[in-house]
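Homework help board

Subject: predicted structure for assignment chain

Our instructor gave us this sequence and asked us to write out the predicted structure in token form, then describe one feature. I got the tokens but I'm not sure how to describe them. Can anyone check?
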Amino acid sequence: MSKTAHQGMQTKAAARWIDRAIIAVLVLLGIFMLLPFAWLFSMSFRTVADAYKMPPSFIPPNLDFKNYAAVLKANVPFLQIYMNSVMIAVVVTLGQLVTCTLAAFAFARLKFPGRDSLFFILLVGLMFPAQVTILPIFLGYAKTGLINKPIGLALMYLTSSFGVFLMRQFMQSQPKALEEAALMDGAGYLKIFWRISLPQLRPALSALAIITFTQTWNYYFQAKALLGPQNAMTLPLAMDILRGYLGSGNLAVVMAAMSMAVLPVVLLFLLAQKFVIEGVTMSGIRG
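My token output:
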């Protein structure tokens, strides 16, 4: 065996060991990330006495579904609140898929005066937290009668700067040959968007939908400022009520409610994580 071939085999062996070490580290980090979720679901099946038992264990002594029944029988209208969260998340997700995609197509493909400046101003909006804009929104909603209405929370986020940025970056990675050929054949921009650009956006649309749904599902500050009655609340506010004053509520029941709240988002992400990674990765191919 030649010296060059021997060195090549050593290099490949070293690369394999490096890959195995990286995988081992990632698996370990993944386990640590899953531990809070495992503890959450474990606590939801315990009795009150087992919930505070020391030392704690990840495996509950028995599967007690009484905590889930207690959530549904609580004074908080949990099912109504659950439907409010579903409605808000679905409306916001669909709204952003439409508005962000159309705006991104305009920024990526159309040429109009002030396009770059307008896009820069749009990105500046990412720098401002929700606390900065909540007061004028509250005053406007008070005049239009949208306070204490779940649809009002959805209307706030029918579009987003991040969604426009994500879709624009993805569109810029698409080849322009088919669009230029369609223009030469007399097709309008709307037809080009619908027939050529949109079918190529499936990974980015999936990523934006999942990110938007998850983010909207977890809104707390905005819901706290705009929604007062319990039948208009969202799940994060319901968790706060069930927890009780200074955490005096039943911990096992709170964990059961949190398990019910987090389960749809976890399942959605596990089923579509491939599209999230692919969409986010491909959006950065071109600047």
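Reply (TA_rk): Your tokens look well-formed. For the description, you could write something like this. The first helix runs from residue 3 to 44. That's the kind of observation they're looking for.
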